[in-house]
Design goal:
- There is one protein chain.
- This protein is mostly helical and about 160 residues long.
- It is built from 6 helices and 2 strands; from the N terminus they run ααββαααα.
- It has a two-stranded antiparallel ribbon.
- α4 packs across α5.
- The protein is globular, with a radius of gyration of 19 Å.
- The two termini are about 30 Å apart.
Length: about 160
C-alpha cells in the first residue's frame, strides 16, 4: 500500500483474510485498503427476524418478529418460522448425530445453513406470493450462487460457528 501498488495490496489483504478470517489484523488491512481506494466493502445485510434462545435445562424459546407475520404480506416472510424450528431440531437431536465427537451442543455452520435453506425452501414453495421480501431475495440469491456458507461465516458467525 505504501508503494502505491493497490491491486497487489488488495490481493495480499484478501489472501490474509481468507487464511485467517477471524484475525482482526487481516480484517483491518482489508478495511484500510477499502478506505484508501475509496472502495465500499460490505456484505449483504439480512436481518433474521427470529431469535432462538435456550435456557439452562435445554428448553428452546423461539421469538418471531411480529412484522414477519402481520399485514397479510405475500412476500414469503411467514417462512421465517421454520428458522426457529430447524434450529430447535438441531439442539434436540441433529447436532449429536452430525458431530458425535462433541460432548456439548454449539451453534454450527451446518445448523445455520440448514435453518436458512429451510426458510428459502418454504418461502419459494408458496406460489401465491408474487415476490419475496428483500431479505429473502438476498438470501435466495446467495444460496443460488453457492455463497450461503461464505455469507454465514463472514457476516453471521457467532462463537459456535467460528
Amino acid at each position: 500500500m505504501r508503494q502505491g501498488k493497490t491491486d497487489l495490496a488488495r490481493d495480499r489483504y484478501i489472501e490474509a483474510f481468507i487464511t485467517e478470517p477471524y484475525n482482526k489484523f487481516a480484517r483491518a488491512g482489508l478495511i484500510q485498503w477499502g478506505e484508501t481506494t475509496k472502495t465500499a466493502l460490505a456484505h449483504p445485510e439480512i436481518k433474521i427476524p427470529t431469535d432462538v434462545t435456550y435456557d439452562d435445562k435445554g428448553n428452546v424459546s423461539i421469538n418471531l418478529d411480529a412484522s414477519a407475520l402481520l399485514g397479510g404480506k405475500d412476500d414469503g416472510s411467514f417462512a421465517w418460522i421454520t428458522y426457529g424450528t430447524t434450529r430447535s431440531e438441531w439442539k434436540k437431536q441433529k447436532f449429536a448425530k452430525q458431530f458425535p465427537a462433541e460432548s456439548t451442543y454449539r451453534h454450527s455452520l451446518a445448523e445455520e445453513v440448514d435453518a436458512l435453506t429451510s426458510v428459502i425452501a418454504l418461502a419459494t414453495s408458496d406460489k401465491k406470493g408474487k415476490s419475496l421480501s428483500p431479505a429473502l431475495t438476498k438470501l435466495k440469491k446467495l444460496n443460488d450462487e453457492g455463497l450461503l456458507e461464505s455469507y454465514i461465516l463472514l457476516a453471521q458467525a457467532d462463537e459456535g460457528i467460528a
